[in-house]
Task: inverse folding
C-alpha cells in the first residue's frame, strides 16, 4: 500500500488555511475572557433580580452551605471544564465523575449543615415554591452554560457528550450556589428539586447538545 | 513462527521508539528520535498558536506523513485519506488559538483524524471496507531482503493477522493499532481514545495476546 503524500496536497492545505484565517492565541484568549464575563454577568443579573436572602438564616449556616457548595462547584469546574494541559481534555471517566458527584455532594453538604443548625429546618415548602426555585436556578444557569459552550465549541473530537454533560453540570452547580444564597428554605425536598435538580437537567442538556456543539 | 518475534515486524509497520508497552518500559516515555520529533511538532504548533504563520507549513511537513499513513491504513482509499488529512489539518488550523501551551499535538491530531473518519463512515457518504483477503497489501517488505519463500510466508501471515485484527473488538483493535502501528505512546493513545492509560494498556494487551495466540498456532 503506497502511503506517499501527493505532491499537490501540501499546497492545497496551506492555501485553504490561508483562505480562512484563524485567530491566534492572544485574540482567542481575549474572546474567551469576554465570553466568560458575559456568562457570569448574565448569572448575576438574574440573581440580583431575584435578590439574596441572608437574614432569615444564621450567617454561619449560609457561609457554610454556600461556601461548601462553591468549593464543590470550583472543584468540578477544575475537573470538568479545565483541560488539564491536554488538547483533548480530561478522560471520559473523570468527566463523568465530575458530572455525577456534584448533586450528591450538594445534598450531603446541605444535610450536614442542617444537622449542625437544626433550626434552619421546619418550613415545609409547597410544590410551587420548589418549582419557582427550579425555574430561578435554571435561569441563572443559562448564561454560564452558553458561555462554556461557546468557549469550548467544536473542540472535542473524543468525548463531546461527556464534556457537554460536565459543562452543563458545572453551570447548574454555580447557579445552585447562587440559588442557595437566594433561597432560605433548607428542607431536603426543596433543595433537591429547586437547587440541585438544575445540575442534573443541565447535565442532560449538555450531553444532548454536546456532540453537535462541542464535537469536531 | 517464532512467537518471540514482535508482531509489528510481521504486519509490516515500523513502531517509533516509544512503542514498548509490553516490554518493560514505562507508558508514555518517549526517547530518541520519536521524542525529538514530538518536541518539534509541539514546538511548531506552539509557534503557530502564538501567531507565526509560517509554522503551519512546518507542522504539515512533520505531521502529514504520519497522519496520511494512518488514514490510508484505516480507509484504504487514497482520495478519502487525502480528504481526511486536509480536514484534520484545517481543524487544527482553525483551533490554533485554543492550543494549550505545552500540550501534545500528536494525540490531538490523531483524535481529530479518527473522529472525522468515524463521522464520515456514520454519514454513510462512503463505504470504507477493511481489506479482506488482501494479505500483502498492508505490509512493507521485511528487512534484510528475505528469501522469496520467507516473504510469501510473511505476507500470508500478515494477511492473517490483519484479518484477525479486524475480528477483534473495536476498542482492542484501535488501541493496538494506535500503539503498535501508529507509534503513539500508551498515554497518547489513551488521550486519543478519551480513556485511561490503564484501560488502553488492557485493551492493547488483550489484542496482543489474541494475536500472539494466532502466531503461536502458526
Result:
Amino acid at each position: 500500500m503506497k502511503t506517499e503524500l501527493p505532491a499537490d496536497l501540501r499546497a492545497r492545505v496551506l492555501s485553504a488555511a490561508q483562505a480562512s484565517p484563524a485567530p491566534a492565541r492572544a485574540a482567542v484568549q481575549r474572546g474567551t475572557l469576554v465570553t466568560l464575563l458575559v456568562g457570569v454577568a448574565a448569572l448575576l443579573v438574574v440573581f440580583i433580580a431575584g435578590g439574596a436572602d441572608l437574614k432569615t438564616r444564621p450567617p454561619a449556616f449560609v457561609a457554610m452551605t454556600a461556601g461548601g457548595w462553591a468549593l464543590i462547584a470550583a472543584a468540578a469546574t477544575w475537573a470538568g471544564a479545565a483541560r488539564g494541559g491536554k488538547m483533548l481534555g480530561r478522560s471520559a471517566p473523570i468527566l463523568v465523575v465530575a458530572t455525577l458527584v456534584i448533586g450528591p455532594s450538594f445534598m450531603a453538604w446541605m444535610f450536614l449543615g442542617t444537622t449542625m443548625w437544626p433550626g434552619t429546618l421546619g418550613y415545609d415548602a409547597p410544590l410551587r415554591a420548589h418549582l419557582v426555585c427550579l425555574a430561578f436556578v435554571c435561569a441563572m444557569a443559562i448564561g454560564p452554560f452558553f458561555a462554556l459552550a461557546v468557549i469550548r465549541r467544536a473542540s472535542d473530537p473524543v468525548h463531546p457528550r461527556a464534556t457537554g454533560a460536565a459543562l452543563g453540570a458545572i453551570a447548574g452547580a454555580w447557579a445552585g450556589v447562587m440559588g442557595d444564597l437566594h433561597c432560605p428554605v433548607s428542607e431536603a425536598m426543596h433543595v433537591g428539586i429547586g437547587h440541585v435538580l438544575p445540575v442534573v437537567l443541565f447535565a442532560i442538556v449538555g450531553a444532548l447538545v454536546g456532540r453537535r456543539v462541542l464535537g469536531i | 513462527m517464532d512467537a518471540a518475534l514482535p508482531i509489528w515486524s510481521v504486519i509490516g509497520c515500523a513502531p517509533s521508539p516509544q512503542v514498548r508497552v509490553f516490554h518493560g518500559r514505562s507508558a508514555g516515555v518517549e526517547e530518541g528520535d520519536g521524542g525529538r520529533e514530538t518536541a518539534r511538532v509541539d514546538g511548531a504548533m506552539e509557534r503557530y498558536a502564538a501567531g507565526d504563520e509560517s509554522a503551519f507549513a512546518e507542522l504539515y511537513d512533520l505531521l502529514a506523513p504520519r497522519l496520511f499513513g494512518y488514514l490510508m491504513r484505516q480507509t484504504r482509499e487514497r482520495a478519502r485519506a487525502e480528504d481526511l488529512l486536509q480536514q484534520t489539518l484545517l481543524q487544527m488550523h482553525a483551533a490554533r488559538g485554543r492550543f494549550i501551551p505545552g500540550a501534545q499535538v500528536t494525540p490531538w491530531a490523531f483524535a481529530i483524524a479518527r473522529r472525522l473518519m468515524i463521522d464520515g463512515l456514520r454519514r454513510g457518504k462512503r463505504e470504507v471496507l477493511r481489506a479482506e483477503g488482501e494479505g500483502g497489501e498492508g505490509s512493507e517488505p521485511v528487512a534484510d531482503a528475505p528469501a522469496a519463500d520467507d516473504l510469501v510466508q510473511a505476507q500470508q501471515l500478515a494477511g492473517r493477522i490483519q484479518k484477525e485484527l479486524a475480528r477483534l473488538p473495536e476498542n482492542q483493535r484501535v488501541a493496538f493499532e494506535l500503539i503498535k502501528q501508529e507509534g503513539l505512546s500508551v498515554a497518547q493513545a489513551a488521550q486519543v481514545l478519551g480513556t485511561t492509560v490503564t484501560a488502553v494498556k488492557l485493551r492493547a494487551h488483550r489484542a496482543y495476546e489474541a494475536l500472539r495466540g494466532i502466531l503461536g498456532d502458526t
Remarks:
- Chain B touches chain A through 49 residues (CB under 8 Å).
